[in-house]
Amino acid sequence: MAPIPNKPQKPRKKPFFGMSLWWMYTIVFLFLAGIFYFDNNTITKQVSYTDFERYVEKDHGISKIIVYSDKREVEGILTDSLARVLFKNSNFEAGKGVKACVKTNIASADKLSEKIDQWRQSGAFTGEVEFEQSSQFNNIFWSFLPFILMIAVWVFLMKRMSGGGGAGGGGGIFSVGKSKAMLFDKDNADKVTFRDVAGLSEAKTEIEEIVQFLKNPGKYTNLGGKIPKGALLVGPPGTGKTLLAKAVAGEADVPFFSMSGSDFVEMFVGVGASRVRDLFRQAKEKAPCIVFIDEIDAVGRARGRNASMGGNDERENTLNQLLTEMDGFGTNSGVIILAATNRADILDKALMRAGRFDRQIYVDLPDLPDRVEIFKVHLRKVKTAPDLDIDLLARQTPGFSGADIANVCNEAALIAARNNKDSVGKDDFNAAVDRIIGGLEKRNKILTDEEKQSIAVHEAGHATVSWHLRYGNPLVKVTIVPRGKALGAAWYLPEERQIVPSQVLLDDICGLLGGRAAEDVFLGHISTGAQNDLERVTKLAYAMVAYYGMSDRLPNLSYYDSTGQNNMFTNPYSDERARIIDAEVSRIIAEQYERAKDILRKYSDGHHELANTLITREVIFTEDVERIFGPRPWTSRTDELFGHRSISPNSGDPVPPPIDDVEATDITDKQDETGHDAKTDTGKNDEKEN
Description:
This protein is of the alpha/beta class. Helix content is 44%, strand content 10%. Mean pLDDT is 75; it is low at 1-19, 163-174, 307-311 and 637-690.
């Protein structure tokens, strides 16, 4: 089945009714404005018949009488003298061409004629008398004007609700059940191709194969194969799931429908299911084509979960219709469904089965080679310095997603422009990573000498302990300059591991406790500056005992619920087991705390020199630690890949920007087989608040 070429569609002419409607609005407005303009030289007052007789008989203030027999109404034109009295607080001015009138109702025109004859005989009235018939058009117009205005407003609102003929067509309120999917084709000006997607080689291979299914389906169907009906892109936020879908839209020579999962959900009952039906109807008409549903978890959550807490029947009806439509295509219909989510664990099992989403493509955080490629893509439009080392930038950003790397490149360009530079250099990237990870420097924050010494001792403790640990991550930078919420921070360059031994986790805990231990050993008191360290240590120790089964008393047990169906009010273990877990967590932390204190006592002279250097210079680098303690006997895997680099601030090589010690406790950036994100440490900066 060959792909159906997309013929350029001629722009449809707007209906004549739409043009005549605006002409009608214009005519009505001009008519009303004309009535107001030509009638604004007359000022009228409604009076009683008794007052009208008095104006004629006693005041002699009526110069002309106009009788409307069909309306049983009489109008009297006032003289200037009486008009000044009646309209003294209005805008009437004699001699300015403004006519003043009074109106009143009468019983009949015949009786008024007799009364006018009496007024003439007595000399009270000597002016003209006219008998007129009021205009039938004016009567009809003023009677039906409110209804005309209501109809005009209603038509206008209906056209506005139709979205001006946008997605879903111009059917007024009846288009609420139409699909809001956007249609892309190969003729779009701004399109993304696979060349713009760096890294993600495995995911990109599978996505490219889906495009080939549609471009050359006979290659696969001739052997009896069936084109997969759907592919689900799963991965952490910012890894490029939506970008991959955009690349498919740019590469495929078939129509591409894009819609968000939240677009199906509406306040009206039945709208979501109706939009699903309309989306797949359009897809069948355009086949072969691709339908992309972004953030499908908005509509694809598991049905019946937490039923006791109340549920959304409308969302479940929408999901039921989606399941029916996805399983209702004929074989090799040429319609492929792509979807993206970072919450695959909460999706309904019926949505995940083969026949609906035949493939689940995991879009992982980029590893070292992928980050190099991602930097190259985002630096295409950035005017960089000739000596910029992209490999080193990739080393300095472990755990960064593609979106994070794009942010680093953009922030570096902004910093260079702020400093009036002609190109973006290594210093700008260093400052950009510092800014993103640690926050903005706050050198104007006033610290006392005692606080400054406490922070220096704390940060030097981190550096000293981690330097002498077998699995301690290489130190990059230690600073006591306040940045973001932290008063001081230590940055490390973690090794990217796929499997983490228990000793690595213990070394991470020991390194995190180095700051609190230094305060205890060398200052004789502790402070609140270790709050962030203690929070991460507790989570990490609890994960070792309750999740990873690394406790001697509770070996090979995991109480983590990957399905997310565990009741939040109950624990999957007894109270006795909870006491054992608490005891094991306390034991692990206490042992590593004593271990950190032993290391500090052994290398106390070096620690004091580091702390004094921090107080003097506020920032120290790996070169300073290596000069005091000597080179580390252990080499990380990243050093083996790129070779050892000097990170001296005085050398020719660029100084690596800080990588915080959150990443030093990098258990893994991948999800384990249960779908649990094993990195228990959260946050981007090592907050040491005093």
